[in-house]
Amino acid sequence: MEYIEIIFGGIETSAIDSFIKDTLQIKKQDIINSHFYSELQGDFEYFDELSLKDYFSVVNTANLFVKSLRIVQDFYEIMCVISSDLKDVEVTCSFSAEQFHKERENEIADWFQQLCSKEIIAFASLGYECDDTPIIVVSK
User: N or C: which end of the chain has fewer CB within 10 A?
Assistant: First the structure.
């Protein structure tokens, strides 16, 4: 099965909570499964009071398997991998390629451009997971 991945990069650590909760509108009830790990707490799952800003202020990675996500169109059963490198945060969302409607490409590119122009993200791309050539790339 082929997968599409959307990468949102250059998210400031201080903005990751609002990006996940407001921009992507991921709520606790939408999360099928999650995995976080910290040296202090060990393995744990996502919870509403979790400060993503604090968690990603150091080098960390987390996974969220989400029921649905609306990025211009609805996508289902999405794996989101969130990682930080002390400078900023990157969110990669993967879903089955059969869900992607190519005719929505321009609308998705416009939405990416809006996020970049509002300085929510530094760049976004959409492409096949196994291909290094993205279908859409937008940056500041």
Answer: N
